[in-house]
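ingest -> validate -> predict -> emit
validate: passed (alphabet ok, no gaps, 453 aa)
predict: started
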Amino acid sequence: MNENPADLLPELCALAGAVLGLVTGIFLPRTRQWIATLICAAGLACGLLFALLALGGADMMTFEAFMLDPVTHVTRITVLGTSLLVLALAAGPLHGHQRETEFSVLVVLAALGTILLGASADLLVLLAAYLLASIPAYALAGFGKDAPGTEAALKYYLMGAFLGIFMLTGVTLLYGLGGGTAYETLKLSTTPAVTVAVVLLLAGLLFKAGAVPAHFWIPDVTEGAPPVVAAFVTTVPKIGAFAALYRIGTDLAPPDWALLIAVVAVATMTLGNLAAFGQDNVRRLLAYSTIAQAGYLLVPVAMAGRTDLAEPALLFYLAAYAVTNLGAFAVVVAVGRDDLPGYTGLARRSPLPALALAVCLLGLIGTPPTAVFVGKLLMFGAALDGDHTWLAVAAALNSVASVFYYLRWIVPVFSRTPGPRTPVQAGPAAVAYAAAAASVVLGIASGLTLTVG
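emit:
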């Protein structure tokens, strides 16, 4: 058994950043809380550096519960990188806030739980990671301490706790049926009881992924929570959830796994797209967009173990989605408007934020040369190679349908009609530029990225 703490340096750096940031923030005046945020960001940055250095290492398990493989490497890099962008996005809106330290610490702890969720190879560690990824997010949803935020946090918490009980029940059944909790030691037969246990286990993970039927919290949290929090909870936790789903599909999947996940995928992408059509609030539009994207991401999860394309499709799509979705939310934070008419004529008064928004929204559609375009190509390839042509057709039809509601937002942005002269915040706008550029660069350099991976 390998028990070298150096294998967990990215996670230890993030943990150290959160603890030191919290302790430091206790003794700082309100006007200097940014120092604690800087410590948290330094922990994430150090963790990201060590995660990059760990690339290319041999696949292995450490501490009998933590896998070190491409899934973990991509989860680490994507989670740490996007969490850094979230802290940068919050730097302006939260500067001088009396609870700036708490926000930064909660973000880092939720990110740490997300990494553990994607890397765990033991059911008990999976449960602990689920809680660590969830509880800080509940607090973040109510960070604004206003009526919409409180309602959002309550819905988020109640649904997470309710589905977490189903997840715990599934773990208990699997332990009783398989005689262990480690994925590699579980000895499961193809019985109805095992299928029921796996379905119960999926409840919590589908909640974190934002997939049907555990998606109800997303629109309310995205609209009610502060915009920066909405950007975080609709992006980062999904990464660990899909990584965990892929591991379960590879190691514990019952015989009907592909059909079950494929049906959930089609229901998720279809509901997300249909519900987004009539939205006039841009945050609710992005909320339903994230639900639709969860449906696309479930396609390679359904193909786990059926084709070698499933893993690169999922991992690349996750990274592409994370930077693109975060970029769209960054523009919302920069502009400070939630209504579609508020973006009318944005290109005339603020060309660069308008361009970043267009890149991100077209990227979410899957327009070349953005990264999501490559992710969708890989996703279609995985479905076809896994003998699920109908699933690829359903995903393609949904991608075409999504063009309508994204264009409802893009067209007014480039309209000649003058709109409200809302000042654009420079800090969040810079994050939007970085995310949009990363989406394009990742798409153009996809060949190199996939070769290295």
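The first helix runs from residue 9 to 26.
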